[in-house]
Amino acid sequence: MAIRIFVTGGTFDKEYNEIEGSLYFKDTHLPEMLALGRCKVSVEILTLMMVDSLEMSEADRDLIVEQCKNTKEERIIITHGTDTMEVTARALGQLIRDKTIVLTGAMIPYKFGSSDGLFNLGSALAFVQALPAGVYIVMNGRYFHWNNVRKNRKTGEFEEMRRED
Amino acid sequence: MAIRIFVTGGTFDKEYNEIEGSLYFKDTHLPEMLALGRCKVSVEILTLMMVDSLEMSEADRDLIVEQCKNTKEERIIITHGTDTMEVTARALGQLIRDKTIVLTGAMIPYKFGSSDGLFNLGSALAFVQALPAGVYIVMNGRYFHWNNVRKNRKTGEFEEMRRED
Amino acid sequence: MAIRIFVTGGTFDKEYNEIEGSLYFKDTHLPEMLALGRCKVSVEILTLMMVDSLEMSEADRDLIVEQCKNTKEERIIITHGTDTMEVTARALGQLIRDKTIVLTGAMIPYKFGSSDGLFNLGSALAFVQALPAGVYIVMNGRYFHWNNVRKNRKTGEFEEMRRED
Amino acid sequence: MAIRIFVTGGTFDKEYNEIEGSLYFKDTHLPEMLALGRCKVSVEILTLMMVDSLEMSEADRDLIVEQCKNTKEERIIITHGTDTMEVTARALGQLIRDKTIVLTGAMIPYKFGSSDGLFNLGSALAFVQALPAGVYIVMNGRYFHWNNVRKNRKTGEFEEMRRED
C-alpha cells in the first residue's frame, strides 16, 4: 500500500537563514525525517509548493485538490502550515470522498531541535493507513474530521468545533 | 477515550552514565516525549519495570499480561525493548482479544538526539486509536499482527514472517 | 578568578514563538549552556538588555561601557548580536584598557539544535582567561582585536580589516 | 598559525550501535564539530587511534609522544578519553617543553545530543592559541598544568591536586 505525500510548506520545513537572521524555505525535510524514523512504509513524495499557509492562494488550494484527485494512491498525506490547514481540509473534504487524506504540520520547525514534527509525521503515517476514506487533520496525537475542526489561535492546538457524541 | 501506557524499559529509555561511560535506565522519558509532541490525547502512564528486553523474565511477561487484562482502558501502548518484543506480543495475543494493544520501542535511545523514538510514539498513539481490537507491534511506521512478525536481527527492522495476501 | 558575563541579546538567545511563527527573546540560555558544558569556572551573569544588535542604541552602548567599567571583575564576556558587535567593541576599546573583555555571539540560535553558540561560548571563556588586558571579538574559534575586525556581511564570518604582520 | 589535532578516541567519538545496543567507535566527529562551530582556524586533523582511554597501552602513549615531537606545528590539540588523560599528559609534559599541547575530551559522546564536547573543543582551540608552551588538560572551561591535575572519579570533573598560590 503506497502512500502519497504532498509537501506544501508550513512551519515543518522552515529554516533559519543565518546571514539574514530570518526564517525561510529551502527544501523539504520529509525524506530526512522518514529516514530518522526508520520508516519502511512505501511513500512517494512530491513538493507542490513551499509557502507559509497564511499566503496560500485559491489557486494553490485548487492545485492541491487537483493533485489529490489525480494521483493514483488512495492514501495521501499533505504537510501544511497550521494557520489555514482547516481551510484546505474543507476544500478537499467537499470534493473528495473516496480517498483517505491526512493533513498534518508542526508548531516548531523540524530543524529547530525540539520540534513536534517527527511525532506528527509518525501519527499522520499511522492514521492514513488505518482510517477509512475521508479527509482529516492530524495534530497533537489526535485526528479530526475536516468538517469539525479549528485551530485555537491562543493555544496553537487543534480542537473540535462541537463535541461529537 | 483514555489510553493506558505501560513502560517496561528498552532502548527507548536508556541513558548514558557519564561517570561509568555505560548505558543504564533511570526514569522514563514518555512524559517529556508527549510534551514535545504537544500530545493532547488523554493518557495514563505506569512504569511496570525498567529492563533490557533480553533480560525480561517469564514473571515479567506474566505481570505485563496481568496488567493489560486488569486495567480499565481498552486501548493500551506498551514501550518495550525490540529484541524480545515479538515474544511479549505473542504472550498477550494468545490471551487478550478484546482490547487494542500496541507494543512499540526504539532503535536509538530518546536521549541520544537522533532517535526514532518520537516517530514511533506518534505512530503507536495513532494506531492504538484507529485499529480494531488485537495485539500489534508498531515499528518503522508500520503495524504488524502479533502472530505474524519478527525482528530481522541483521537490519534491526521488523517484518512479516509470511506475506499476507 | 571570577568572570563577569553581561548578556545583551543577539542570535544567541533568540527563540521561536510557535503561536506567532516568529523569533523573539525570552530569557538568556547562558546558565543552561554553561551547565551543558559542565563549566566549573566561577561566573557571575547579568542580563543588561535583550535586543537584536541592529536595534542597539547609543544609550545601550553607554550602559554596556559603564557596566564594564564599574564591575569589580577584571575579565568580562559580553554576549552580543553579531551585526554590530564591532561597533560595541570599538566603544569599549577606546575607553577601557585595564580589563580583558571578550564579545561573542552566535550565527544560529542556541535553541535551534545545530548552533555554533556552545562552541563560541567555550572559546570565549578560554580566551578571556588567557588573553592579556584588551577588548576582543571571539568568533569562529578565533580572537580579533577591537580595532582590527569587521563582520563580512556575505559570509557571516569575522575577519581582520588588515592583515597584521 | 596552523593547529595540529590528534584524535585518539575517548567518549568524544563514541557512537551507539543500534543493532547491538552498545557503544563503539567509527570515525571521528571532529570535522563535523568544527563545521558546526563555523571554525575558521586552520587545523590539520590526524587520527592516531580510536580507543577507550582505559585500554590505552604504553605503546599507544609512546606513539602520541612521538607524533607530537615530530609534527611541525607548535600548537597541538589531542582528543582523549578522560579516564587516563592525566597519564598521557604526564608522559608528554616530561618530554616536550617547547610546544603548546592541550588534551581535551568529553563526558558525553558528541552524537548523543546534549554533549559537552562542542564546548570543550571551543575551549581547547582557544587555550591552545593563547597559552604559552606547556602541556595542559582543558576540561570544564578550565585549563590545568600536566603536573597538577587529576580526574575526580566521583564527580567526573578535573581538579588541581594541590592549590596553586
Describe the structure concisely.
The structure is a homotetramer of 165-residue chains. Chain A has 165 residues and is of the alpha/beta class.
Write the layout of secondary structure elements.
4 copies of one chain form a homotetramer.
Chain A: E1 3-9, E2 14-17, E3 22-25, H1 30-36, E4 43-51, H2 58-70, E5 75-79, H3 85-93, E6 100-104, H4 117-130, E7 134-139, E8 142-145, E9 150-151, E10 158-159
Parallel strand pairs in A: 1-4, 1-5, 5-6, 6-7
Antiparallel strand pairs in A: 2-3, 7-8, 9-10
Tell me about this structure:
Four copies of one chain form a homotetramer. The first copy, chain A, is of the alpha/beta class and 165 residues long. The first copy, chain A, is 26% helix and 29% strand. In chain A, strands 4-1-5-6-7-8 form a six-stranded mixed beta sheet, sandwiched between helices. The first copy, chain A, has a two-stranded antiparallel sheet with strand order 2-3. Chain A is built from four helices and ten strands. Chains in contact: A-B, A-C, B-D, C-D. The interface between A and B is medium-sized, with 33 and 33 residues.
- The order of strands across the largest sheet of chain A is 4-1-5-6-7-8
The separation of the N and C termini of chain A measures: 32 Å
How can the largest sheet of chain A be summarized?
Answer: 6 strands, mixed
Query: What series of H and E elements makes up the topology of chain A?
Result: EEEHEHEHEHEEEE
Q: What is the SS-derived class of chain A?
A: alpha/beta
Helix content of chain A: 25-40%
The protein's oligomeric status is homotetramer
Beta strands of chain A, count = 10
Overall pLDDT metric of chain A: 95
| Total helical segments of chain A | 4
Most extensive interface: A-B, 33 and 33 residues
> What is the alpha-carbon Rg of chain A in Å?
15 Å
- Beta-strand level of the residues of chain A, as a percent range? 25-35%
